Amino acid sequence: MKWEEICQAFPRQWVLIEAVRAHTNKKNERILDEIAPLKKFSNSPDAMKTYQELHRENPRRELYVLHTSRKEPNIIEKSGLVLGDSEKTNY
User: Fold this and answer.
1) Which of 2, 42, 49, 53 has its CA 20 to 30 A from that of 62?
2) HEC per residue, 8-77
């Protein structure tokens, strides 16, 4: 699925998604070419708890918790780390 399809399927929800196909562009933006929704949530703490459990089981999976009110995922990769908008820092 594409991000737009996730937003239409789960309006105004927190979603746990997995990047099926993704790449990083020259601006260090993580581009999610194809994503799979894993679960929807009404609040972010529950979503993050599930994310942490799945990440502990398999840290190589590319998982994200995002709210579908976002027009774009806006994920920035920094030195091997991937950061969402709220986690960006300026050094």
Assistant:
1) 42
2) HHCCCCEEEEEEEEEEECCCCEEEEEEEEEEEEECCHHHHHHHHHHHHHHCCCCCEEEEECCCCCCCEEE
pLDDT digits (tens, 9 = 90+) for 32-42: 999 999 999 99
Q: How confident is the model over 27-82, as pLDDT tens digits?
A: 999 999 999 999 999 999 999 999 999 999 999 999 999 999 999 999 998 875 66
Alpha-carbon torsion 50, 59, 31, 76, what sign?
positive
Separation in Å, CA 47 to CA 1, 6, 13, 71: 20, 16, 10, 19
Torsion-angle region of residue 67: left (phi > 0), alpha (psi -120 to 50) or beta? beta
